[in-house]
Amino acid sequence: MTIIIRFIIVSTTLAFFSFFYFYINEDKYYPGADFTISEMPNFKLKDLYSERLFKIEDLEGTFLINVWASWCITCRVEHNFLTKLDSKNIPIIGLNYKDEEKDAISWINRFGDPYKFIIHDYKGELALDLGVTGAPETFLLNDGKIIAHYRGEVNDMIWEDVFKPIIKKENLFNVN
Amino acid sequence: MLIRFFLFFSMIFSNLTISESLYKFDNAEDEKRFYSLIKEIRCPKCTSGSLASSNAPVSEDIKSKIIELIKEGKSNQEIKEFLSDRFGNQVLYNPGLNKDTYFLWFAPGLFLIMILLIFFFRKKT
């Protein structure tokens, strides 16, 4: 009996410490990253430049959706990296979040346009449905399903650690 | 003179616009539900603050969405599910029973059982 009790005590203590040890030491753990697979919500929103309406059917295939706004300072920092991704032929769709049309357009004219097209979400309706808490946020969409969501600035490190593994796993964009 | 007159009246009536309620509800029951819900839901942008305590843009959006859902006749449970689907389980203050929270829920019980075992089976010296 004492042996069993001793065994229980030792193993629980070990289990307890190892739980926290592995939890704390988990490598490449990013609190902003979420890999829950979810359906892309339905929406009907205007193009930033024209009166054209975008619907969920316009989002076929694989691409990134980047939530940005002209008032968002981190988006300005992130912009250079998005331009780099665009030059590597990775399709990015912009979701302009709670922004004035003219501010957004002048921002794009000033810093360049890495986006395939930009959806203008003035009231943040689609953003709320996507679970956006602020800008910038980036989603990876594959065949109508969101397979990755990152809250915060995407840069070289985040791209390598958060997006690259899932892109390689799913074999998207021909990235290696 | 006219300007003074105008200022005087704007002073008198300005508090009327302020005192008006920020959110509009169909009935008192809905209003009560709304104010209890926003205390149970965390603001996703704040480290730890409820929607009720937060004026962050996203909290304001969520609050108006909650009112919309209440008006559509959704239950509290449905509203909470709607939000946790989008913002993750961490928006709910009450942690539900799922694979991330097993440790949280059962560890204290296990510890208690372990301590009781030790207590009852210890060697009496």
Summarize the structure.
With 176 residues, chain A is α+β, with helices and mostly antiparallel strands.
Total beta strand runs of chain B? 0
User: Helix count of chain B, per DSSP?
Assistant: 5
Q: Give the CATH architecture of chain A.
A: 3-Layer(aba) Sandwich
Sheet with most strands of chain A? 9 strands, mixed
Radius of gyration of chain A: 21 Å
- Per the principal axes of the C-alpha atoms, what is the gross shape of chain B? elongated
Low-confidence stretches of chain B: none
Mean pLDDT of chain A: 90
Structural class of chain B: mainly alpha
Task: Give the strand content of chain A.
Answer: 15-25%
Shape of chain A: elongated
CATH topology of the largest domain in chain B: Helicase, Ruva Protein, domain 3
> Termini of chain A, distance in Å?
57 Å
Contiguous helical run count of chain A: 5
CATH first level of chain A: Alpha Beta
- Supply the CATH superfamily name of the largest domain in chain B: Cytochrome C biogenesis protein
End-to-end distance of chain B, in Å? 98 Å
Helix content of chain B: 55-70%
As for the number of domains of chain A, it is 1
- Radius of gyration of chain B over all CA atoms, rounded: 24 Å
Summarize the structure in words.
The complex is a heterodimer of chains A (176) and B (125). Chain A is of the alpha+beta class and 176 residues long. Chain A contains five helices and nine strands; from the N terminus they run αβββββαβαβαββα. Chain A has a single domain (30-170), classed as 3-Layer(aba) Sandwich (Glutaredoxin), CATH 3.40.30. Chain A has helices at residues 2-24, 73-87, 101-111, 125-130, 156-170; strands at 33-34, 38-39, 44-47, 53-55, 62-68, 92-97, 118-121, 137-142, 145-151. In chain A, strands 1, 2, 3, 4, 5, 6, 7, 8 and 9 form a nine-stranded mixed beta sheet that branches. The longest helix of chain A is centred in the N-terminal third of the chain and has 23 residues, at 2-24. Chain B folds into two domains: 24-94, Cytochrome C biogenesis protein (Helicase, Ruva Protein, domain 3, Orthogonal Bundle); 96-125. Chain B contains five helices and no strands. Chain B has helices spanning 2-19, 28-40, 57-71, 76-87, 102-121. In chain B, helix 2 (28-40) packs across helix 3 (57-71). The termini of chain B are far apart. Classes of the chains: A alpha+beta (176), B mainly alpha (125). Chain A binds chain B through residues 1-2, 5, 8-9, 12, 19, 34, 36, 38, 98, 124, 128-134, and chain B through 44-45, 57-58, 61-62, 65, 85-88, 103, 110-111, 114, 117-118, 121, 123.
